[in-house]
């Protein structure tokens, strides 16, 4: 029997009252994209040198920064003055910021160790998180973050600069075309620069970057993660058979507590990746060489690459985002994922599954360098 009109009216008002008084959205937030307005983004810590991106070259109307959490008041003041930001944008307590600003997503720009704290605070509130590479310092922390993200239905993405490169996207396209390189056999990745002190990073950045707990282990973590991320994508998420690594301290007077150079061999059943991560290169570099049994691809930077195979001579190519679809701005990508316009995929460069494997590779590399032995990995759950 139908309810009388008066009862229906009261019921509707009661439901609207509940909705209006709710502090946080309910249910699986990842499955319920918001509207098309700018993404309400908060920043958790600004000790990472990349924090300036959102206020500099990576500014975008797709994102509105609604709050910044930074307990270092001197750093917060300096950052505020540098970018002419309002004082009420800053918070010294993470939970207070989340409660007051009610962001849809948080970008973590603190130490790698602090990523777990950010996800622990955000996930139960249904707030999505994007961290700077790598996902975590240890597998045990990465697994806690994964559990929180899945339990509360949030996106947990990891941002790598190489994910924005048109040359990297073109490389993936050519590898997928098996007629060009044939069967993938070997990948060599070079990543790094002259050293964090040498290039003049901030004191706050240098402090945790050279701390074995906060960073996870020097150049091996800082730049070894790029190769692990790219190779995991190329191998469609496969877990490697083994990892062998050697680390060096070429500048112990500058970096006494962490390695400043690492060579990592990631071995698969039918392919191999050699990652050379260093704070000792004579220049900044993030490049890779991909070799199949019938062709090769070498990227020099984000826009220049060289290709050749058994049927064609070497050819230098200049590739831009107008030539191949690629997100050159990670914050636009984050907004589109949350809005349901983009799917990071199970094995995507930003995806949680891919970056769990990245942390497994890095942890195995650390252990191999420590013991002088090859570390054999088991597939998750085995």
Q: How are the elements arranged and paired?
A:
Elements: H1 5-21, E1 39-44, E2 63-69, H2 73-82, E3 90-91, H3 94-101, E4 105-108, H4 115-122, E5 128-132, H5 139-152, E6 156-159, H6 166-176, H7 178-181, E7 184-192, H8 203-209, H9 218-234, E8 242-248, E9 261-267, E10 272-278, E11 285-292, E12 295-299, E13 304-309, E14 312-318, H10 330-338, H11 352-371, E15 375-376
Parallel strand pairs: 1-2, 1-4, 2-3, 4-5, 5-6, 7-10
Antiparallel strand pairs: 7-11, 8-9, 8-15, 9-10, 11-12, 12-13, 13-14
Helix pairs in contact: 4-5, 5-11, 9-11
Index terms:
single chain; 382 residues; alpha/beta; Rossmann fold; Dihydrodipicolinate Reductase, domain 2; 2 domains; 6-stranded parallel sheet; 33% helix; disordered N terminus
Task: Describe what you observe in this structure.
By secondary structure, this protein is an alpha/beta fold. It has two domains: 30-161, Rossmann fold (3-Layer(aba) Sandwich); 163-325 and 347-376, 2-Layer Sandwich (Dihydrodipicolinate Reductase, domain 2), CATH 3.30.360. The protein is 33% helix and 23% strand. The strands form two sheets. A nine-stranded mixed beta sheet has the order 14-13-12-11-7-10-9-8-15. A hairpin with a 2-residue loop joins strand 11 and strand 12 (295-299). The longest helix is centred in the C-terminal third of the chain and has 20 residues, at 352-371. The chain is globular. It starts with a helix and ends in a 6-residue tail after the last strand. Residues 1-33 have low confidence and may be disordered.
